[in-house]
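Design job #97: recover the sequence.
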């Protein structure tokens, strides 16, 4: 293959999206993940504070905490899958403990 054929083949394969578009998409997903985790953390803290001060909260904060743990676990286990860093595996598994325990308690109490 000559240079022009290689370039043409590369353009055809990468036509739907180029490297810049993929990087922008990745940055957008990362920013979205951080925003969701940040909002869940803020809501957990706000609801815990409200419960401490007033004795009751507008809604329970546990679903937000579980969403945070599940998001962090999925994030770290995905990183482990691609990078094989033990740290990501350990944190991913640790973050799975609260959701698994919650499911266990719900099933034990009879749904």
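Job complete. Output follows.
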């Amino acid at each position: 293959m000559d240079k022009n054929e290689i370039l043409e083949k590369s353009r055809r394969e990468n036509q739907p999206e180029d490297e810049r578009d993929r990087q922008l998409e990745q940055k957008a997903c990362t920013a979205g993940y951080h925003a969701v985790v940040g909002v869940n953390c803020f809501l957990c803290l706000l609801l815990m504070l409200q419960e401490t001060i007033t004795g009751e909260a507008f809604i329970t904060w546990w679903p937000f905490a579980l969403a945070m743990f599940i998001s962090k676990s999925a994030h770290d286990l995905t990183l482990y899958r691609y990078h094989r860093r033990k740290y990501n595996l350990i944190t991913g598994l640790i973050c799975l403990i609260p959701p698994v325990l919650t499911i266990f308690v719900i099933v034990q109490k009879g749904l």
